[in-house]
Amino acid sequence: MKRAFTLLELLAVIAVVGVLLGLLMPALSGVRTASKRVGCQANLRSLGQATLMYMDSNRNDLPVARYHASVLTTNTEPFGTLADFIGHPLPLPAHEVDSFSPWACPADTMYAPSTGFSYGYFPMVVFSMLLNERQAQGYMRGDRFIVFYDFSTEHSPRNQVLRDGSVSQMKEN
């Protein structure tokens, strides 16, 4: 005589599988978030290394930029200056952001789709506040000076890259 599963046994197995999936889904969400953070940190590390290479070629000065970069305004500095050092083309207007773009955080759903960039260039603030470039470059000499930071609020705390090329998480106030 053949033995078959009863309806009760089948429902019990489905219930157990459902409970296990319910326990697994939050863990997978956490892994997805962590992988996006690591991707963002890798992008910032690339920007930090490109900045160091630029500084080696330019009397230890940082690139000049006075406005936030956006492909919509065709103002792509300082990323346009660093593109040769990174070896990846800048994003184009009205194109979807490349998922492997070093210019965009994988978690950013707000800034990158519209501007092409997810990272702010902190010296831009200093350049716009001070009278001349020499003053600004003098102010930004310390290794712990923030060069790039993550616009995206998708992960907290945000990531930052310092003048020495290191990547860390910003201290939240």
Q: Could you outline the blueprint of secondary structure elements for this entry?
A:
Layout: H1 7-57, H2 79-86, H3 112-115, E1 119-121, H4 123-129, H5 133-139, E2 146-150, E3 159-162, E4 167-169
Antiparallel strand pairs: 1-2, 2-3, 3-4
Helix pairs in contact: 1-2, 4-5
Description:
There is one protein chain. By secondary structure, the protein is α+β, with helices and mostly antiparallel strands. It has one domain. It is built from five helices and four strands, in the order H-H-H-E-H-H-E-E-E. A four-stranded antiparallel beta sheet has the order 1-2-3-4. Strand 3 (159-162) and strand 4 (167-169) form a beta hairpin. Helix 1 packs across helix 2 and helix 4 crosses helix 5 (133-139). The longest helix has 51 residues, at 7-57. The radius of gyration is 23 Å and the shape is elongated. The model has no long low-confidence stretch (mean pLDDT 83).
Could you name the key traits of this structure?
single chain, 173 residues, alpha+beta, 4-stranded antiparallel beta sheet, 5 helices, 4 strands, 45% helix, elongated
* Global structural class: alpha+beta
How big a fraction of the residues is strand?
5-15%
Quick one: overall form?
A: elongated
Largest sheet, strands/sense/barrel: 4 strands, antiparallel
How many independent structural domains?
1
Q: Are there runs of 5+ residues with pLDDT below 50, and where?
A: none
**Count the helices. How many?**
5
First and last CA, distance? 72 Å
Rounded to the nearest angstrom, the radius of gyration is 23 Å
Order of helices and strands: HHHEHHEEE
Give the overall average pLDDT: 83
Walk across the major sheet and give the strand order.
1-2-3-4
Helix percent reads 40-55%
- Please give the number of β-strands: 4
